[in-house]
Write a structure and sequence with these properties.
The protein is an alpha+beta fold. The protein has 2 domains: 229 residues, no CATH class; 93 residues, no CATH class. Helices cover 56% and strands 19% of the residues. A hairpin with a 5-residue loop joins strand 2 and strand 3. Helix 2 packs parallel to helix 8 and helix 8 runs antiparallel to helix 9.
């Protein structure tokens, strides 16, 4: 248990660092508001835990049982009549609670967190303060292709005063100056706009003298969209991740069946990997545990990639829903049992 907790903390720190880097990149590109940085990281934790907990319990079992082999305690126990059922009982005291926690996370907590994150983003798109706009400062977005300056923000958090925008598209440059502006969101298309009032736009080319000035009373400027809201054709992955489990539990569509199987997979993987860790934990008296751990991580990588591929096949209709991802769990389980039998650790084997 202590090894499991330690490995979980280490993996959690690594995954938080990765998530932080991805979000900072999105913030720098103007796709995510800086005011929601830590909120979004917190809401990503259920999804992160569903990924690292099966690996953490896998490594914990390998290290825990490997210690028995290195200290010759396993040889003494087996000589004293220790058999397979006796090993399962304490092992499942760890595997079953972890599997139950994973099932609760993937079935209940993760969809709710994803839905809340999407709602937070939608609310932030209409709020300049949440978006991270600070008065009197130039905000560089899209790698320098969009520069935004606001002299003041009113108390409602969405109305901007004295707006300056520099936008570069291909070889054309536009300078927008307006007395007032405010955010609004097109809910149907999921696109975010900045409406400017009482201003002018100056447009010209970097390689020509073709310049133009236009006065306007109102103009809507489309702003960069967050990656989470950019939808490809026939791709509703984000919406599926945010839907309740009860809504897709009895669905017959391929993508919803794939999402349901994906939510069940981590809890089953924790139990299957725990059983696979038993033969992997076997080591010679003077053999270090790093080699077995690396072999275990390799096995976990293959297992996880097979689940990812099976998810895509299932969503695309390449494999029947009845088969789903069960065949991968069954395959790894059979390999574990055959490996145990070959090592002579099944019931009645010396």
């Amino acid at each position: 248990m202590w090894t499991f907790l330690a490995v979980t903390v280490v993996l959690l720190i690594v995954m938080i660092g990765i998530s932080l880097g991805e979000l900072l990149n999105d913030i720098a590109g103007g796709r995510v508001p800086s005011g929601l940085l830590w909120v979004l990281i917190g809401l990503k934790m259920p999804d992160v835990l569903s990924t690292i907990l099966p690996l953490a319990v896998f490594i914990a079992v390998i290290w825990g049982l490997g210690r028995f082999y290195r200290d010759q305690e396993m040889a003494v126990m087996r000589a004293s009549g220790f058999r397979w059922p006796m090993m399962l009982r304490p092992l499942f005291q760890l595997l079953v609670p972890v599997a139950i926690v994973l099932l609760a996370i993937t079935m209940l907590l993760a969809p709710a967190a994803t839905s809340l994150a999407q709602q937070k983003l939608e609310d932030a798109f209409r709020n300049a303060a949440e978006w991270g706009l600070q008065t009197g400062q130039f905000h560089v977005l899209q790698g320098g292709n969009l520069i935004l300056y606001v002299a003041g923000v009113e108390k409602d958090g969405r109305t901007l005063n004295q707006v300056f925008i520099q936008q570069i598209k291909d070889d054309r440059e536009q300078i927008w100056v307006a007395r007032k502006g405010y955010y609004w969101l097109d809910r149907e298309k999921g696109e975010r706009f900045l409406t400017l009032e009482d201003g002018q736009v100056t447009e010209g080319g970097s390689n020509s003298l073709d310049f133009g000035i236009m006065q306007f009373s109102r103009n809507d400027l489309k702003l960069p969209q967050p990656e989470q809201r950019q939808k490809k054709k026939n791709d509703n992955k984000d919406e599926l991740m945010a839907r309740r489990t009860t809504e897709i539990l009895f669905s017959s569509t391929a993508d919803e069946v794939a999402e349901l199987h994906w939510r069940i997979a981590p809890s089953l993987a924790a139990i299957v990997l725990g059983l696979l860790a038993i033969p992997l934990s076997h080591s010679a008296p003077r053999e270090g545990r790093s080699g077995r751990t690396l072999l275990g991580i390799l096995a976990y990588t293959v297992y996880a990639n097979m689940l990812y591929m099976s998810r895509g096949w299932l969503a695309n209709g390449d494999i029947p829903p009845v088969l789903g991802m069960w065949w991968i769990h069954a395959l790894v389980l059979v390999i574990s049992l055959l490996w145990l039998r070959r090592q002579g650790r099944m019931v009645g084997k010396g």
